[in-house]
Specification:
Length: 252
């Protein structure tokens, strides 16, 4: 049976004073369940202080993106080894905002995934379709292309140390959530795609749902057989909202 991962993507939100209170609130209320892991992904400048504050807790820290390069003349970029150096365990790659706003192609995302793994980070690979793509009936082909680019680059075995997040773009930050059945259909498809390469890897890979997940809809989504947690944006910025999701996972 797969464990749950409940990950908060703070995006470009929060400042030091508020972060301290948020992290303290989350750390104090994390469910005592061996099956639920909680992860916080703050902006780069706060990673080290959030790691320090969480020392001795069972809450992990990750970054929101990473460079595909190791070091050198890449002004503004952050290398995977730097993220490890400050105590990150995970990194999100290929978030739809990175793909849409910063032109990250599937090939670039695959490069970041590979570089992250090489530094000992666990990549969380985001995939998902826009509303136009869903309405055109291309959800599966979009997800296949995004996932396929990574499998072609790193091989299926790499997914033993990685996580996939299905995030329908039309549900991110919009308040519209995929129904549990809509999400499950795509999660099942993703797992089948992985199984086409390696059945054991497919069975053990965590596939998170992301897109306006909150306390009120978490139990329904997390109750689906192929949904193994959540990648949460808006609802990760308040301890009470985020913990409601973590608690739903603990009861799932
Ligand atoms: C996200 O940014 O990954 C996300 C799912 O955001 P939200 O929960 O706000 O839709």
């Amino acid at each position: 049976m797969r464990d749950f991962l409940v990950a908060g993507n703070w995006k470009m939100n929060g400042y030091a004073a508020g972060n301290t209170a948020l992290v303290a609130g989350i750390a104090a209320g994390v469910p005592h369940s061996a099956r639920v892991k909680v992860l916080l992904c703050p902006p780069f400048p706060y990673l080290a202080s959030v790691v320090a504050q969480l020392q001795g807790s069972n809450v992990a820290v990750g970054a929101q993106t990473v460079s595909e390069h190791q070091s050198g003349a890449f002004t503004g970029e952050v290398a995977p080894a730097m993220l490890r150096d400050v105590g990150c365990e995970y990194v999100i790659v290929g978030h739809s905002e990175r793909r849409a706003l910063y032109g990250e192609t599937s090939a670039a995302v695959a490069g970041k995934f590979k570089a992250a793994l090489g530094a000992g980070l666990k990549p969380i690979l985001c995939v998902g379709e826009t509303l136009e793509e869903r309405e055109a009936g291309s959800t599966e082909s979009v997800v296949d292309e995004q996932l396929g680019a990574v499998i072609d680059t790193v091989g299926i075995a790499a997914f033993a140390s990685a996580v996939v997040a299905y995030e329908p773009v039309w549900a991110i930050g919009t308040g519209k959530t995929a129904s549990p059945e809509q999400a499950q259909e795509v999660h099942r498809h993703i797992r089948a795609l992985l199984a086409g390469h390696d059945a054991d890897i497919a069975e053990s890979t965590q596939i998170l749902y992301g897109g306006s997940m909150k306390g009120e809809n978490a139990a329904g989504l997390l109750g689906m057989p192929d949904i193994d947690g959540g990648l949460i944006g808006g609802a990760s910025l308040k301890a009470v909202d985020f913990l409601a999701i973590a608690n739903a996972a603990a009861q799932g």
